[in-house]
Amino acid sequence: MSAEGFNLFFAIFPDEETAAQIKDVAVRLRMRHGLKGETFAQHRFHVSLHGLGSPYERRPAEIINAAQRAAERVTAAPFDVVFDRADSFDRNKPDRFPLVLLGHDELATLIAFHKQLGLALRKSGLGRFAAPRFEPHVTLLYGDKRLEGEHPIAPPVSWTVKSFALVWSHAGKTRYETLGAWPLLGET
């Protein structure tokens, strides 16, 4: 995320109970590995699906309207996600390593959902934002050092995804506004 301005993205969010579990995992990992950096607030834990540009100075009405049309095209059933390990991403920013939750095979349905939303973005004229690569993760904090290797999480963090949201983020201010949320009403 940028240091100032606003970001626009699609995401899935855990339920409150799962967000509390994620917070607990984040605090334990931070302490166990001596990481500096504050864990995210519970309301910020999410999986980003597609970024729709950043930074913005003001809300891009045309992009938001097209994104909402894209979201309405998506027909999916609720699905489960499981995150069973932690690792750090290397983003080439010294002293700012994202500590994230990752999963293995249990995320195939999430990856398929990401592709379906990307196709809907293309059909709505927003193909430039349809990210071809997707590594599902939940960011816990930005640490001052990189963890070496993957670290199993027991018990794994899991939840049933029942909706997805279009989010307007106040970059650098830890504030999210939901501009729309769409339930997953398809049949399994």
Automatic annotation (TrEMBL):
Name the SUPFAM superfamilies on file: LigT-like
Gene Ontology molecular function, alphabetical:
2',3'-cyclic-nucleotide 3'-phosphodiesterase activity; ligase activity; RNA 2',3'-cyclic 3'-phosphodiesterase activity
The UniProt keyword set, sorted, is: Hydrolase, Ligase
Q: Which InterPro entries match?
A: Cyclic_Pdiesterase, RNA_CPDase
Q: Any idea what this protein is called?
A: 2'-5' RNA ligase
